[in-house]
Amino acid sequence: MLSATGASKGIGIGKVLIIKEQDLSFEPKTIENIEEELQRYRNAVESFCKNTEKAVEKLKESASEKEADILMGHILMIKDPYMNGEIERLIKMNQCAESAVDTVCDMFITIFGSTDDELTKQRATDVADVRISLLCLLLGIEEKSIADVPKGTVIVAKDLTPSMTAGIKKENVEGIITETGGKTSHSAILARALEIPAVLSLESACKILSDGEQVIVDGTEGIVINNPDKKQLSEYTQKREIYLKEKEELKKYIGKETLTKDGIKVELVGNIGKPDDTDNVIDCDGEGVGLFRTEFLFMDRDTAPTEEEQFEAYKKSAIIMKEKPVIIRTLDIGGDKDIPYMHLEKEENPFLGFRAVRYCLKNRELYHTQLRALLRASAYGNIKIMVPLVTSLNELMEVKEMISQIKTELDKENISYNKNIEVGVMIETPAASLIADVLAKEADFFSIGTNDLTGYTMCVDRGNKNVSYLYSPFEPAVLRSIEHIIKCAKAENTPVGMCGEAAADPMLIPLLISFGLNEYSVTPSSVLETRKNISNWSKAEADKIAQTVMSLKTKEEIIKHLSSVI
Amino acid sequence: MISEKLTLKNAQGFHMRPAGVFAGEMGKFSSDVKIKFNGNEINGKSLMNIIAACIKCGSEIEITCDGADEQDALDKAVELINGGMGE
């Protein structure tokens, strides 16, 4: 079993076909007849544009507009006055067309590849693709195409280029495996658009796998199994069927509102860890971001991120989401993490220690920078600020005070921000739960963080095997806490959401509907499934289940009852 | 020669699609079109030069047009940038 990056979900079982790289080597020569060489180059460009236009049409049918657009860009590239001008200039200096194309493409590949912008880096792949196509035309070599592969093929290649994949017949391709590329590479985008399972960045895939051998591609888990035995084969055939059936069923929930069976509307949003994940929320049909963890900005570096850097990250997410909410949680970090510049001391009990809002309120400069970046970014979308690990009203009031000071600063500097930015509390400690009525008067919203709330309520480290059996949101103590929090929020008309794993648990959903939860924030890939699960229950049905469950005395009884009705 | 300062609004910056639209439209004018960004002057008619400049969302840029149809070119450039190149 080999594991790499799962870039397009699903399971494919088929025969390996290795796409070998073409030999595009040539002897650079000095040319005598410049006019003739220019003509040869222009003919190649013309053929290139014609071929590409045809491929664009095919892609529009088989994949998506987005894919077709990428290929259309190749025409714009070669027709670009600067790029085209440079190539012709070199030919006029007696270089042969092959060499001129190679040199200019190489220059742009280097320029694009050396930027720190992911999108620009990807364009280097496009220039490389243009180079291959043009050199093939100039050298009279037929370009590799995967349009005609037989049914049941798993394509294995170093990388897939847009022109290579044009005309791909998705019904013939069971899976894609490449040696390079990540989740945002061309191959990944194409595989997802065509709904072909794909595992990328599998090192030396073309060497490890051999033509004609059977292979399983699990794009969900990022697993490749070559020469599977009977047991693996039947296991994955079954997995494949289940996956396809579920996918088909979930399709009807795309683009729909999230409603209970009797039409009560709730919000269904996604959890993310990086601004780039925002696109994923949209792709998965999420209605906003319910939890944007900001820790990634602070990890694996020598100094704290600047205001500008944070501003860019928050703004990016806000702009992508447009008017939809983006709830950003301020730094939630403590002694369990090793971040030298933050000088976090090793503690006996880091989860009961100096962390999250406690640390931030003692390191005002660092927190000021983050809050200011958040406020500035709020001018670009619907950003809300969420404060983690609150245990007393004072903490919330101190944060609000800092925010109001920053607003005054920004007013003085004439910098725009959302004057009505909402400030909410992540309810994840028993203390916050017990004073939820008090917090609800001051917070603009609540989000129940069930992972920590369960751990702190049950007094359990879920990583400790000896006690992890106690870690369950179905414990009566946890359920009572959740019910209490939602009730307190309702009493003050404070919207209340949930951003832990529990929000996507099909067994908990009827309880959450009954309690009156307003917002469910889940892993983006769980959005459609959760929408479906919510639509299964009416308020009355959910109330009936909740009434029984809340009268039961143990987790075992609760799970038994829920299993019998769901 | 005339110019105007603007802010790029496209969420993912001046990437291939908006750059293609912008360069394509600017190519229709006879005037020289330059984008000033971060102290550099970029050929506004070249998609490749615009991409290479990595202009991100929210960046301040200055468009300069120079030539017979400079006013029309600048009007079009402003319309495109403010409209997010149709994105």
How would you portray this structure in words?
The complex is a heterodimer of chains A (566) and B (87). Helix content of chain A is 48%, strand content 13%. Chain A is α/β, with parallel strands linked by helices and 566 residues long. Chain A has three domains: 116 residues, Enzyme I, Chain A, domain 2 (Orthogonal Bundle); 99 residues, Glucose Oxidase, domain 1 (3-Layer(bba) Sandwich), CATH 3.50.30.10; 312 residues, Phosphoenolpyruvate-binding domains (TIM Barrel), CATH 3.20.20. Chain A has an eight-stranded mixed β-sheet. Chain A has an eight-stranded parallel beta barrel with strand order 9-10-11-12-13-14-15-16, surrounded by seven helices. In chain A, α11 links the parallel β10 and β11. Chain A is globular and about 90 Å long. Chain A starts with a strand and ends with a helix. Chain B has 87 residues and is of the alpha+beta class. Chain B has a single domain, classed as HPr-like (Histidine-containing Protein, Chain: A). Chain B is 34% helix and 26% strand. Chain B is built from three helices and four strands. Chain B has a four-stranded antiparallel β-sheet with strand order 1-4-2-3. Chain B is globular and about 35 Å long. Chain B starts with a strand and ends in a 5-residue tail after the last helix. Chains A and B meet through α2, α3, α4, α5 and α11 of A and α1 and α2 of B.
In short:
The complex is a heterodimer of chains A (566) and B (87). By secondary structure, chain A is an alpha/beta fold.
